[in-house]
Amino acid sequence: MKKFLKMIAACALLPMILIGCNQSTTSSIKLAEVTRSLFYAPQYVALEKGYFEEEGLDVELQTTWGGDKTMTALLSDGADIALVGSETSIYVYAQNSKDPVINFAQLTQTDGTFLVAKEPKPDFKWEDLKDSTFLGQRKGGMPQMVGEFVLKKHGIDPKNDLELQQNIDFANIPGAFVSGDAEYVQLFEPTASTFEKEGKGHIVASFGEESGHVPYTVFMTKQSYLDKNEEEVQKFTRAVYKAQKWVEETSASEIAEVIHPYFEDTDLELLAASIDRYKSQGSFATDPILDKEEWQNLKAIMDEAGELPADIPYEELVNTSIAEDIMKE
């Protein structure tokens, strides 16, 4: 009987022992994404398919709605890692930050917006934008800077050749386009395809195809966090790379099914069509490496928009060693 009671006691203690073990081997990471977008499909794949869990990471995702709010969360330790445009790390560095923000894993490598017209434009030409009302994105953000870069590439001065509206918050831009007098708007998917399906707009061009490769959205963290938690950042990057490879090899319809919990209000078929649009133009990075050419392209776009505060060297704010090591495994 005593032996039996000892066995019962041991069994009762086992769950507590296992919990203790799990607590010691699982690391928590607070991840802030700049917005909720299927443009970030590989991130949601990593979450839904358990790639972070396989690495012993408990990733808590929060949506911070805007580059400034995302960077504030990161700098104030409200987030450990941020998914946001690389331009934000340049802005922070230019303010003489003693704890620079380091880009360590790229997620998207093109602009993710599309030019949507209120009326059908079967024979659209970029010059059609002249003398029109264009509802753009927030000044200083990557969507707006890329938008202006592409317009200038086609001989359009965004300040003089059209009426450029930039006074609408990111989350309110779709509604403002529907209810306002703007003839064109710059939208992400799946909003662009949703508008087209509902007859509220018509996709006429892709800013991603026009602007080339840029480090559009990148996972970044403070140098101090990286110094103290390099192993966790390695595990995080490994999970992201697994997801990137899976997305590259998987059909848009299957990807849509996996990430649908993050876009419950979007029809699966439309979600798949939007993902396919991004895949076909190479928007999803196929590995975590942010290369020097992309960094130079980013700075050229920022400079053209008058938003480059300083010529920050690639080596100062980009760490590729972790991603390179992961890819060699």
Could you characterize what this model shows?
Pfam families: NMT1_2 (PF13379). It is found in: Periplasm. The protein is built from 16 helices and ten strands. The protein has 329 residues and is α/β, with parallel strands linked by helices. It folds into two domains: 27-110 and 214-328, Periplasmic binding protein-like II (D-Maltodextrin-Binding Protein, domain 2, 3-Layer(aba) Sandwich); 113-211, Periplasmic binding protein-like II (D-Maltodextrin-Binding Protein, domain 2, 3-Layer(aba) Sandwich), CATH 3.40.190.10. α6 (142-153) links the parallel β6 and β7 (163-165). The radius of gyration is 22 Å and the shape is globular. The protein starts with a helix and ends with a helix.
Topology:
Layout: H1 2-25, E1 27-33, H2 41-48, H3 51-54, E2 57-63, H4 67-75, E3 81-84, H5 87-94, E4 101-108, E5 113-117, E6 133-135, H6 142-153, E7 163-165, H7 173-179, E8 184-188, H8 191-198, E9 202-206, H9 207-211, E10 217-222, H10 223-228, H11 230-249, H12 252-259, H13 268-280, H14 292-304, H15 314-317, H16 321-328
Parallel strand pairs: 1-2, 1-3, 6-7, 6-8
Antiparallel strand pairs: 3-10, 4-10, 5-8, 5-9
Helix pairs in contact: 2-11, 11-16, 12-13
